[in-house]
Structures are given as structure tokens and as C-alpha cells.
Amino acid sequence: MAVDEAIFRECIRGGRGPTLRFYGWRAPTLSLGHFQDLEREVDAGACERLGIGIIRRPTGGKAVLHDQELTYAVIAGASSPLFPPSILETYRIISRCIAAGLAALGIETALTGAGRQEAGDRLRASCFSFPSRHELTAAGRKICGAAQVRSQGAFLQHGALLMGFDPRLTCEIILPHRKGEEQLDRLRRSVTTVGEQAGREIDAETLSGHLREGFEAVLGVRFEAGGLTAAEERLKEQLMANKYGADRWNREGRNMEWISAL
Amino acid sequence: MYSREHIWVRVDGDLATIGITDYAQEKLGEVLSLELPEADAYVERDEPFGSIESAKAVIELISPVSGVVISVNEDITDDIGIVNSDPHDTGWMIVVEMDDLSELDDLLDTRSYQDYLIQEAEVD
């Protein structure tokens, strides 16, 4: 998260072109959406008992359990010709990139058209429990969730592709706890994984390779492998120490003190 | 007056009342959450003073002026729907005591802001 935000902040300052990142998680971690209320949405006691860390994303949306998944981040500035200024158009183009990558694995996907978070949906705290606008489904089940933060024309979009899914674990940590089997069934029916749809196990390297090719084909560009600049590295360290490593942000979601210190 | 980041500014002496424009609220759709600075916080021109979440994304609110926040609209944190229903009046967000009135020179008047919106719609 700190790396993604460091790149995003440098992008706002004009110091960097569009970036595509893929990463996994060393240990199961729950991420809250920027504005989610920890006490209301997550069983923090269960997380502690199960050894699941809790962090808060800079992007919006609902809680996500990052376990067996490939996470992507797309970051671009206002001047990038690759992405339009429209929020929904950006979701749509990135969805097309992901869809192209999954198609190479034999997975057919569809873009959902329904609105995200209609009134009744706000009760559903898990990001993967329902498909939202311009997100991808395979066989009618959500395969890739996404969320954005934007500032001064730049954006950071996070998304996650499940490589494995444990609905029981999700139900144990995300509130509200409903009638067990009913909730599990709903999750099983509404969520799918890359391996399940491909009909074989797909490792993260293979998946990220195909996704990268999907982005390159749809956007008409070639990505070059690279690391953080010195400025991004410094910012990442600051973000890790003062924001993503701090309860003020992870637990309470207060961002302004950090922002004003930038 | 308006900023290119879709923030309106109403000036009274060295006090600037700030909120998001009707265009911004319409583009965002239903506002779900809002984070604003606390009174006495310092905000800086062209830097975020808060953020807002709609069904589509989290958007950072960019301050058009620098200065100390002397008042925050608590009513909109209690009833966030006001940001959508009345963004230019009761949906105001913060009042800033400005450091430098010349920062206002970079803002757009109503007509220039309307022209700017037309340009934005063309590239969108």
C-alpha cells in the first residue's frame, strides 16, 4: 500500500509515467476501504485470533481479505493519454485489459453494468460479495474487484484476482455475521477464482504475465520493468512509518494529518 | 469563484468559504463518506484538504487557497446527503482564513468555469 501511494503521490507531482504493479501477500491481511468503520465492518478479535493483519487502503470500497490472490495497482497521472479523465471509463479500460489477460488463460469474462453499492448493498461489507459497476464476472460470478482513489487528475486503481477462496474465513472476520451456511452459500455462488475458471491451477507468475500482456495489447504500449525512484523510496518509508504502520490511519481512517505533513 | 478542481470559493474579507461544485457532485454521484480537516488545521493551496467517497471512487478535495481552517460544517458530516442536494449553499465544507489573497487571482469566474466545464466534457 505504501509503495502504491508513493508512486501515486509522485505521479501527481508529475514525476512518473503510468505504472502497473502486481504483488501478493506474505500473510493473510484484511484491507478496509478508505472510509470503512473498523468496529462495524470487521471482527477485529477474530482477525487477531486468526493472525490476520488489518490495514486500510487509500482507495474506496469494501473490506477485502487478501490471502490467495494476485493484487494489481494501476497508477497514472492527469497527462497520461492512456486513460480518459472519466472515472468509469478508466474502470472500463482496465477491465478490458484484465479481460484480455484472462482470455489468454481460456477464461471468458463479462463486464457488469449494475450500479455499485445501491442502498441495500451498503450492508454487505465484503468487497467480493457482489459485483459492481465495470467489474469482471466469469460465469456470472465476480472474479476481479476494483477500487480507485483520484487526486488532481491522477488515479490509483487497486484490484484483486482470487487464486483461491476460503468463504468460511471471510465469513469469520467480516461483519455482520449472518446465518452461517446461508452466507457461505451466497459467497460461493457469487465469487469465483482464476483456477476454478481456467480448470487448472494457475500460479501468480503465469497470471501476472498474461495480465501484463493484456494491458499491453489493449493499451498499445510496452511496459518496462523498473523499481522505485529515490523520491518514491523516501516517500514509501515515510508512508510506512507514519500512515500504513499507524493505528490512526489503519484503525481510525484519519488521513488529513498525514496529508498535511507531505 | 471556482477552481479547476471543481471547488467553489466565496470570499468575505480574508475568509474563504469552500465547497464542491454542483458539477462535481453530479459527476461523483451519491456521496457516501466525507473526511474534512479539523478546525485550526492548516490547509495549503493545491494540496488535499479532505476526501470524499462516492460509489465510483475516493476523490481528494484540493484546496484553492492556503490558510487556517476556522470553521468546519458539522451539519454535512451528520447528513451527508446535503453535499448532493445543496452543494453551493448549506453543503459548504470549510471556512479558511486566507494567508495570501493573491491566490484568488488564479481562480475562475462563473463564465470561465462554465467554459472550462465545456472543455472538460469534450475530452471526457
Summarize the structure.
The complex is a heterodimer of chains A (262) and B (124). With 262 residues, chain A is of the alpha+beta class.
Topology:
The complex is a heterodimer of chains A (262) and B (124).
Chain A: H1 2-12, E1 19-23, E2 29-32, H2 38-41, H3 44-50, E3 53-56, E4 64-66, E5 69-76, H4 87-103, E6 110-111, E7 136-138, E8 141-151, E9 154-162, H5 167-173, H6 180-190, H7 194-198, H8 204-219, H9 230-244, H10 247-250, H11 256-261
Parallel strand pairs in A: 2-3
Antiparallel strand pairs in A: 1-5, 2-4, 5-9, 6-7, 7-8, 8-9
Helix pairs in contact in A: 1-9, 4-8
Chain B: E1 7-12, E2 15-20, H1 22-28, E3 31-35, E4 42-43, E5 48-54, E6 58-62, E7 67-72, H2 74-78, H3 82-85, E8 94-98, H4 110-123
Antiparallel strand pairs in B: 1-2, 2-8, 3-5, 4-7, 5-6, 7-8
Morphology call of chain B: globular
**CATH fold-level label of chain B:** OB fold (Dihydrolipoamide Acetyltransferase, E2P)
CATH topology name of chain A: BirA Bifunctional Protein, domain 2
The total count of strands of chain A amounts to: 9
Low-confidence stretches of chain B: none
> Superfamily at the CATH H level of chain A?
Bira Bifunctional Protein, Domain 2
Report the total helices of chain A: 11
CATH homologous superfamily of chain B - what is it? RNA polymerase II/Efflux pump adaptor protein, barrel-sandwich hybrid domain
CATH class of chain A: Alpha Beta
Please, how many helices of chain B? 4
Oligomer: heterodimer
Main sheet strand line-up of chain A: 1-5-9-8-7-6
* Tally of individual domains of chain A: 1
